[in-house]
């Protein structure tokens, strides 16, 4: 039956074309836009390839090298008990840096978040200033902050804690202020109607709504900081990054693989733990509404 | 006649009040326990991380002094003045820094593009509603997890050894690390699509590529583009430090300026990086708002 329909349609093709010109147009605006986007992407790639001086020969030798490294990585091996102890100590430092840095940043960013939120700030100028301050802090990578703090408190994990804390104040401030701005206005109006002033409104209307969400943000950033604090040792700010960079530079590939496996395991464990904690907190946050 | 407020008789009120008090006590105890655990963990971490508060307090003035020196010119006629009194002297290296900055942005752009393409492929491969084969799905998921967890600067360190110094290993490192993050977001977006167009495509006889192309891809394309733009902004920031390990971009100059204590150079470079990030943040933010509008209209 369908082939018969097809015959009829094919026989009437000129008529169909005349009656539905839009369906037969080759260049629809949507297609033009897609082609333009693809061309832009291709031009960007070509520019990149030209600027990066990527030659096929270099690519091939590089990939060969990578495969060679990969073969040398197996099996992962710490290379002796002394090294294993140092790695575990580095890992503990990494976790401590992530934990303390996140906590410190959250505490410092808490008031800043209120100042940067439209519905809780003191004045428009204060809001603008605190927003720009947070933007500026966020624009600088944690590794740069680490270099700056090393100049002040010296090499070691303490500089890492301070670096993670400073870098995260910007992120936390932004997330917190967005959470506060998204809070439901009705409890706020209720407290005002019952005669509550500014502090009352924040304590009884805003905080109960935003605290569980903020705790979720804190846990999420703790997960992400566990990852960033693994590398902060590359510039000498404590943690397992120092050993990792050292092993890569001295081409100890088995030890590199061992450290990478350790990091993967710890990050997976932290993710699972904080995922469960977050679910528990979110569940409790919904309790009053039910 | 005024209504007399009615109260429960004490015999019935007492158990209710008792139950309320018990619930409150329970909550308070859990809160105290959580605070106790948090405090213990804090002290443990402080001990492991060699936190030295007296040291911080004695040297904290150096932190603010550092910013003071960052904003003071060193060379030229205006040495000792604030940096903004002589922008020409402050940004003396602009002719060298601007191409490096453009390189950094280009590295981030190309890396994000490559990462988006690979991440989209792997994201589809790890989505439960697209791929029935559990082995393929698990393999894709583990690969994404690995790429996401290993930081890009570690990839950069390894790639610099394999491919030599320069921006190319940086691009690869950005691509590999962002494909991990993007792949996960994509696969979650794909798992949340409406399956009716997919079933329609299969019923009309579409093979797997056609089904993905006509049934699934149009639904996730806006969110895919939105995630990629967000990632681009993150990658510009990341690319600015890849030069620390010799993987191209402006990071090399920044590291040198910090290590050699060329304070006004450090502040000039930081200002350039922050301005670039803010501009890209604004541009991608606008594009993403438009994409969100498209998504709602679709």
From TrEMBL, chain A:
It is found in: Cell membrane. PROSITE patterns: ABC_TM1 (PS50928). The chain crosses the membrane at residues 32-50, 94-121, 142-165, 202-222, 229-248, 254-274. One of its GO terms (molecular function) is ABC-type phosphonate transporter activity. It is a multi-pass membrane protein. Keywords: Membrane, Transmembrane, Transmembrane helix, Transport. One of its GO terms (cellular component) is plasma membrane. Pfam families: BPD_transp_1 (PF00528). Residues 91-274 form the ABC transmembrane type-1 domain. InterPro entries: MetI-like, MetI-like_sf, PhnE/PtxC. The keyword Lipoprotein does not apply. Belongs to the binding-protein-dependent transport system permease family. PANTHER family: PHOSPHONATES TRANSPORT SYSTEM PERMEASE PROTEIN. This is Phosphonate ABC transporter, permease protein PhnE. The lineage of its organism: Bacteria, Pseudomonadati, Pseudomonadota, Alphaproteobacteria, Acetobacterales. The gene is phoT.
UniProtKB/TrEMBL annotation, chain B:
The chain crosses the membrane at residues 31-49, 105-132, 153-180, 200-222, 234-254, 266-284. Residues 101-284 form the ABC transmembrane type-1 domain. One of its GO terms (cellular component) is plasma membrane. Its main location: membrane. It is found in: Cell membrane. PROSITE patterns: ABC_TM1 (PS50928). One of its GO terms (molecular function) is ABC-type phosphonate transporter activity. It holds the Pfam family BPD_transp_1. Keywords: Cell membrane, Membrane, Transmembrane, Transmembrane helix, Transport. It is a multi-pass membrane protein. Belongs to the binding-protein-dependent transport system permease family. This is Phosphonate ABC transporter, permease protein PhnE. It comes from Caldovatus sediminis. The gene is phoE.
